Amino acid sequence: FARYTGSSLYARKNFADLERYCVGYTNIDMPGIRGSDDFRQVTAGPDLFDLAAAAVRDATGQEGRCEKRVRAWDQSFQNMGISSFLIWSSVLPPGSPYRTGGGNMPWWWHTEADTEEYCDPEILAKDTAVYLTGLSRLLGGDLPDVPVLWRAVRDRLSAIEVASNGTLDL
Question: I need a surface site. Which of 26, 50, 78, 162 has the fewest CB within 10 A?
Fold first, then answer.
């Protein structure tokens, strides 16, 4: 939708280069939020999950769990076949008084109340460590697990075929 027009236009304009050179997409969203000491929600494509989970474990000591794929939040590259890799790092834990609705976002995020007092330097340092650890490994040659990605694609196509009640033969 229009809120993400910039990344969509970038993806369209640079499709050939992205297809050839890009192995993952990182969006450093919500770093250092006060109270966000939960690093276990690993947001990564199936092919990059193990690499992202290892970065979380090595930088924070927390064991990551696979979250279902994010289908919003600046995800203009997934339909091009570019997996996400650490869309966020820390999140507010369940039950946090700062959470809005059922999501991970704090009530002040992207508002005029989003000021320095809501940033925690220790959490920001851990977020930075997660991103630097993961990205340095990815850029250093730890490549995506392509067979895992293809199994995920195959499994999703099978689920769509089953849900179609025989109208699709995928």
Answer: 162
